[in-house]
């Protein structure tokens, strides 16, 4: 299945747009555009744009495994709980607990440009040629994990 086919199967732009209007998200009434970013056995990630705004939509695959809709809600609550912390994270935008909207529970968060070492076989620049940049990236990761460890999970 092509990325475009996957996107059309999993993100109905009209239904998503109606839901976004109900949530009073920017771009009311404007068309919704989406693009498959990455996914597989666990969950799917799409870039969604509307009215000059850009979000990431995360949802289960087409055949929703048992418990996965609840997992989406839990993931959203965790991201939302990080809002007033110094932990680097995408901002929680909105969550849908009605699988009838696009076939599964899903949530929107701010879109963060990046890359995935799992889906991209080669490091992008400057990390490909600059080992110091790789070290810096590793240190940022360690710093983020340390910040996360200080969050009161209760």
TrEMBL record:
Gene3D superfamilies: Phosphorylase Kinase, domain 1. Residues 35-151 form the Aminoglycoside phosphotransferase domain. Transmembrane segments: none annotated. This is Aminoglycoside phosphotransferase domain-containing protein. Coiled coil: none annotated. InterPro entries: AGP_Transferase, Aminoglycoside_PTrfase, Kinase-like_dom_sf. It comes from marine metagenome.
């Amino acid at each position: 299945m092509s990325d475009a086919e996957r996107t059309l199967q999993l993100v109905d732009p009209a239904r998503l747009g109606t839901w976004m209007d109900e949530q009073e998200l920017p771009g009311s009434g404007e068309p919704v555009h989406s693009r498959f970013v990455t996914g597989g056995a666990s969950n799917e990630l799409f870039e969604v744009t509307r009215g000059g705004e850009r979000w990431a939509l995360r949802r289960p695959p087409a055949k929703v495994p048992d418990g996965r809709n609840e997992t989406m809600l839990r993931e959203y609550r965790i991201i939302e709980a990080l809002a007033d912390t110094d932990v680097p994270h995408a901002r929680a935008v909105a969550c849908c607990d009605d699988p009838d909207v696009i076939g599964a529970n899903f949530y929107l968060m701010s879109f963060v440009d990046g890359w995935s070492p799992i889906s991209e076989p080669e490091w992008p620049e400057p990390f490909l040629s600059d080992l110091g940049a790789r070290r810096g990236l590793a240190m940022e990761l360690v710093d983020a994990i340390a910040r996360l460890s200080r969050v009161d999970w209760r």
